[in-house]
Design a protein that fits this description.
With 275 residues, the protein is mostly beta strands. The protein contains 4 helices and 19 strands. It has 2 domains: 140 residues, Methylamine Dehydrogenase, Chain H, CATH 2.130.10.10; 81 residues, N-terminal domain of TfIIb (Single Sheet). The N and C termini lie far apart (48 Å).
Length: 275
């Protein structure tokens, strides 16, 4: 008998939507008859262009779309957008921290999301005071460049530090004068042209290092702040590093847009990884 909890009910429906099933050729006819449900804006989704899907600890699915954030409970969508206080319609990532807080990446800054807060039809920035606790509180860097405010990926490391990849390099969320601030962190990304600094993914490894994928190569930042850039073999840069993954054996996998994927063997030292 299936558990009747809300979380279980969510996954009974979601697995039918998201699972990829591998079966023998002899059963391929049956596989083609499996029901497939497509969800679009007609079903309540914010936008049909989806950048990322995140599952939280409560069993909800969050869809980061080009027109806001959508939460799916297995039956219906609940949408959050600029009418509720998001600074930009384009949402690229959602992070649930180990303490249970939600952070949303948008092209208008990183946003603290308080589901119990009041939705407001204007943007509230960190440090502003008011009688009402807002649903969304926005943190932006001092850099006025729109590329610096365009957050592409979020990560919480082992120490609880929140890192933000942007279209203009790496930033870290810090506490500054009783308010939150985004501070730029230099990892040696060149600046010959703007697109070089666009970060596509972040990954913490088992040695406490932070890995950064960008068009100009792969970067590693150790806990002491030292960094290294890896751009060999040349196909790595030509392919544009896109996604990072660490397997159970500690191997780092790097996918690219155009050049296939690579496996790196690394350790805790400063030695160059073996591709």
């Amino acid at each position: 008998m299936l558990d009747g909890s809300p979380r279980k009910r969510i996954w009974v429906r979601v697995l039918a939507l998201l699972s990829i099933v591998f079966i023998p050729d002899s059963l391929s006819v049956k596989a083609e008859r499996l029901p497939l449900k497509t969800y679009t804006v007609a079903d309540g989704l914010s936008h049909n262009e989806i950048d990322k899907i995140v599952r939280d600890s409560r069993g909800f699915l969050w869809f980061c779309t080009a027109d806001g954030l959508s939460r799916f409970d297995g039956y219906t969508f609940t949408n959050y957008g600029t009418d509720q206080g998001l600074p930009h319609a384009n949402v690229t990532d959602l992070l649930e921290t180990r303490s249970g807080e939600y952070w949303v990446a948008t092209y208008g800054g990183i946003v603290h999301f308080n589901p119990k807060g009041a939705p407001l039809n204007h943007v509230v920035y960190s440090g502003e005071t008011g009688a009402i606790t807002p649903m969304f509180t926005v943190v932006v860097p001092e850099d006025q460049d729109r590329r610096a405010r365009a957050i592409t990926v979020l990560l919480e490391d082992r120490d609880g530090t929140i890192w933000c990849g942007t279209l203009k390099g790496l930033f870290r969320l810090d506490q500054l004068n009783n308010r939150l601030a985004l501070r730029s962190v230099d990892v040696g990304i060149p600046n010959d042209y703007a697109e070089q600094r666009a970060i596509s993914d972040l990954l913490p490894d088992r040695y406490g290092s932070l890995w950064i994928a960008a068009p100009s190569g792969l970067y590693r930042r150790w806990p002491d702040g030292s960094t290294a850039r890896y751009s060999k073999p040349d196909e790595l840069v030509k392919g544009y590093p896109q996604d990072l993954f660490e397997d159970d054996e500690g191997h780092l996998w790097v996918t690219t847009r155009l050049g296939g994927f690579f496996r790196l063997v690394t350790n805790e030292t400063r030695a160059s990884p073996f591709f």
